[in-house]
């Protein structure tokens, strides 16, 4: 850490002290050689690792139902709005007036700096997370004229001070933010998912075969206690066992909340055994098969998008989505902090869009962003509803305006997807056509780049390489598959695309 100048010496020492026990335990039970361990931690410049073999889940013997292209609902059919919150990253030590630039992984903390333009009251552009009052302002200012029917909340509650977090810190963040949501949202049903920052050390989510003090029971049990008013006893049981569950949203629609840490390359516990951790994907197949038999639709929520996952997990998930394309009405993720999506195609030709994973922007500003949140408009609760996404709306708090002297901070609509992109509907085929339009319509692509960053893009423009990598990511619902990107322009070697992806993955 110090030799590679990854952080200050003090931060390195604290990080090593925090991580060493669990990391060494996982390595000791794995088959990693030193060069492989270095490659896993620091990338290919340090060593090569490839110890995670292929594996497959079992799909039902029942034939896949005939594919029926999605159709818009009849005029006047009920619609519902679902509030989507992700990556809140509450920093209890956020200090207005403190240094917004610092050498540590997280800034905007500590004493105010006299005479210097420090961190703003409502948040700051830079390596900073959010004070609680900004999150509460979001909940206070939800549009009263367009009420929501449910809330999907996909994790990452604590701040990015990952080198100095204790279990007590994580549980305080869980309890504080959950209480704020209960207080502000009242009787609204809330369906949470587990983020990678909930654990300490960060990303450390041992599968259920790891027991005792190193297990994740301390976290899952606390989540079950905090969320018991929102979830059924059956859902709480699987939450306690593995951090995932299913629940009814309303008649005809179920939600599946996945623990995407079981697909994460950063989860060092998977070095022991990465084959369908906790049996989660096989469980998902069972839930989807039961929904298919019952004629129900399913929304899948989770933190880390499937295209960011370990290869075998990602490819198995892709197979599941393809098999149950008639049952899965929506996929909703976060984690990247920006506004994007991942498309899924038929496995035979990789040309017919079968599903889309929406990736919503973060509430936090980390790094150099406006705070944001998403509302999905879906086909409502009535017999025969598709429960599909019909549109989505993104809201931001413009920090330049909010932090101005004497300003009244207002969360405001940034854009509506169909209106902004000229989409006839919001089905997977519409997003596939939009992706192809990005190739030649540079003005449209740059508009997407602006909205990707919640209205505060980086100073450096998105040139040819950046564009190639981004378009490839939008077409990649599964990881490590160069075939998905071959039809796209501009072209770039897949190894270079992967290198660019690693540069922009901050969380």
Automatic annotation (TrEMBL):
Binds 2 Zn(2+) ions per subunit. Keywords: Disulfide bond, Glycoprotein, Glycosidase, Hydrolase, Lipid droplet, Lipid metabolism, Lysosome, Metal-binding, Phosphoprotein, Secreted, Signal, Zinc. Its EC number is 3.1.4.12, 3.1.4.3. Residues 353-474 form the Sphingomyelin phosphodiesterase C-terminal domain. It is found in: Lipid droplet; Lysosome; Secreted, Extracellular space. Pfam families: ASMase_C (PF19272), Metallophos (PF00149). Monomer. Interacts with SORT1; the interaction is required for SMPD1 targeting to lysosomes. This is Sphingomyelin phosphodiesterase. It comes from Melopsittacus undulatus (Budgerigar). The lineage of its organism: Eukaryota, Metazoa, Chordata, Craniata, Vertebrata.
């Amino acid at each position: 850490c110090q030799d590679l100048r990854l952080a200050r010496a003090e931060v390195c020492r604290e990080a090593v002290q925090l991580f060493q026990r669990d990391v060494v335990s996982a390595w000791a039970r794995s088959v990693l050689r030193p060069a492989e361990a270095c490659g896993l931690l620091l990338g290919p410049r340090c060593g090569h690792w490839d110890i995670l073999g292929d594996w497959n889940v079992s799909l039902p013997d029942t034939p896949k139902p005939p594919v029926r292209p999605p159709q818009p609902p009849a005029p006047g059919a009920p619609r519902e709005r679902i509030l989507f919150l992700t990556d809140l990253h509450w920093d209890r030590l956020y200090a207005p007036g403190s240094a917004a630039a610092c050498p540590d992984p997280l800034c905007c903390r500590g004493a105010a700096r006299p005479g210097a333009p420090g961190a703003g009251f409502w948040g700051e552009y830079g390596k900073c997370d959010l004070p609680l009052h900004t999150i509460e302002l979001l909940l206070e200012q939800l549009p009263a004229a367009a009420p929501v029917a449910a809330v999907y909340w996909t994790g990452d509650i604590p701040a990015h001070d990952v080198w100095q977090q204790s279990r007590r810190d994580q549980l305080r963040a869980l309890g504080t933010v959950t209480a704020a949501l209960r207080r502000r949202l009242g009787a609204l049903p809330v369906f949470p998912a587990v983020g990678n920052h909930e654990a300490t050390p960060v990303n450390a989510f041992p599968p259920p075969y790891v027991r005792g003090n190193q297990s994740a029971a301390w976290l899952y049990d606390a989540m079950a206690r905090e969320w018991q008013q929102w979830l059924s006893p059956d859902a709480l049981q699987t939450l306690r066992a593995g951090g995932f569950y299913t629940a009814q949203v309303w008649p005809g629609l179920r939600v599946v909340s996945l623990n995407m840490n079981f697909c994460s390359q950063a989860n060092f516990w998977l070095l022991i055994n990465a084959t369908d951790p906790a049996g989660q994907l096989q469980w998902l197949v069972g839930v989807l098969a039961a929904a298919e038999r019952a004629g129900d639709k399913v929304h899948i929520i989770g933190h880390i998008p499937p295209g960011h996952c370990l290869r075998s997990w990602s490819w198995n998930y892709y197979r599941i989505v393809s098999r149950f394309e008639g049952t899965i009405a929506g996929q909703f993720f976060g984690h990247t902090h920006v506004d994007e999506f991942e498309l899924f195609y038929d496995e035979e030709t990789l040309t017919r869009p079968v599903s889309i994973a929406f990736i919503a922007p973060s509430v936090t500003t980390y790094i150099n962003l406006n705070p944001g949140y998403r509302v999905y408009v879906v086909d409502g609760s009535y017999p025969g509803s598709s429960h599909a996404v019909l549109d989505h709306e993104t809201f931001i708090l413009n920090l330049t305006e909010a932090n101005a002297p004497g300003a009244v901070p207002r969360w405001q609509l940034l854009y509506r997807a169909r209106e902004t992109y000229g989409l006839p509907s919001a089905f997977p085929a519409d997003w596939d056509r939009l992706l192809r339009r990005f190739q030649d319509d540079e003005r449209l692509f740059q508009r997407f780049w602006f909205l990707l960053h919640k209205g505060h893009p980086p100073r450096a423009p998105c040139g040819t390489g950046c564009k190639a990598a981004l378009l490839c990511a939008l077409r990649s619902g599964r990881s490590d598959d160069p075939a998905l990107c071959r039809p796209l322009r501009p072209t770039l070697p897949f190894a270079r695309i992967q290198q660019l992806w690693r540069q922009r993955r901050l969380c």
